[in-house]
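This part of the workshop introduces the protein records we will be handling. The structure tokens are whole numbers drawn from a learned vocabulary of backbone shapes. The record below serves as our worked example for the rest of this section.

===
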Amino acid sequence: MKREAHLAADGWPLRRTLILTAAGLAMFASGCAKRPVIAKRPPSTTSRGPATTSPAPSGTLSRPLPESGKPLPAGVYEEGIASWYGIPYHGRRAANGEIYDMHKMTAAHRTLPFDTIVRVTNVKNGKQTEVRINDRGPFVDGRVIDLSFAAAQAIDAVAAGIVPVRLELLEGPHALSSVFTVQVGAFSERQNAVRFIRALEERYQPVTLYPQDTPRGMLYQVRVGRVGSETEARQLAQRLRREEQVTPFIVRLTE
């Protein structure tokens, strides 16, 4: 289950506008927050107190450069917004192949390897929890992790829906895949995704279609490139943002 939250409005001219809508996509378990829907292509006009220091697993994971360029506190891998998800994803297959259980301490992250253990701190109240990465997402600009319902409960994030967090890496797998791609959109109609791919193929290679079964039906993801480092993926994402006016998301390909 790779939950894709950005949905193109089918039938709209792709070269001018790619609008991704949240209508009908997943709702959070509590009903208090909608599962975020993202990545739009704009019209052509242009989630405690101080974080504890915890070193990243030796020789396993690289620390990405923060999008803002602002130095992170010692021991902190990433800062941003955390969301959470439950029903209707509960009982469906997660990206690593296991069945997602909203009552277990798991989370989705776009680039951390599966089975990485992460300490998540709610910056507003100092509450912490530890989760295991078993899924991919969230595909919303500015959000860095998607928590299970149980994990969100542990840091009092259920009612708020989204909270500012700090992520610290506690444990990671020894053998990692170092292949990344950039996701630039998702469509409910396959034909629209194919048209978008054909347009992108004039300037980028490879461009790939990834069908994904979601609680609300099939989504057809469009992903660009296949590179060997997150740095290269960031460079490609910047180019796509600039030239194609999309909201790109770097994704580690399945380990």
